[in-house]
Amino acid sequence: MSSINLIILGYLQNKEKSAYEMVKEFDSWNLSNWLKISDPSIYKNIIKLCDNGYLNSRTVKEGEMPEKTLYSMNEKGNTYFNELMEESSKNIGKVYFEFNAFFNNIEHLSEEKRKEYLINFKNKIEERRLTVESRYNHEKHNEIIGSGFFLLELYNEFYNVLEKWSEKVIDHYN
Fold it and tell me: Where is the Transcription regulator PadR N-terminal domain (predicted)?
């Protein structure tokens, strides 16, 4: 299942956009913070989706600007989008944390280094929690409700739990 394809197809449901515009919009969503995705992979997948007949494309030239290709959904793309959505609803995937290897090896450190690194870890969590919490509170006051807000709420709750958990770990090793 391709999360990247799902994001692209969902985004193009009701609008026609260039690959550049999509990448810029996805960057503004901070998409790489909640999906394993990169700008080159977005471009690559747009081209593949078009080559496989899931997207229509047309080239336009506006004034003195260089030509650009605009992409839009077609019926085959909509069918594929629905297949990906169904597959996603039945397979939530596994959750891996980048820090699992760090914690797996924490006991191989001297007590001094272990304390130092655990404090580094806790500080980084607090930094992320504050960033997410700030954005969450901003969006909450804007009364924006929808799937994006619910994902933001999930991350807000996750970082609160992770911060409490890191305090327990530090207490354990003190």
Answer: 8-82
User: What stretches in the chain show pLDDT beneath 70?
Assistant: 1, 143-145
Q: How high is the pLDDT of residue 132?
A: 87
> Are the C-beta atoms of residues 103 and 165 closer than 8 Å to each other?
no
Give residue-wise pLDDT tens across range 1-11.
588 999 999 99
- Give 88: exposed, middle or buried? Use CB within 10 Å, 0-12, 13-18, 19+: middle
Q: Does the domain spanning 3-90 belong to CATH 3.40.50.2300?
A: no
pLDDT value at residue 142: 73
Give the integer Cα–Cα distance in Å for 103 and 73: 44
Domain borders along the chain are 3-90, 100-173
> Is-contact 56 74, C-beta < 8 A?
yes
**How many Å apart are CA 105 and CA 126, to the nearest integer?**
22
HSE (side-chain half, CA atoms, 13 Å) at 10? 13
Please report the pLDDT score of residue 174 as a whole number: 86
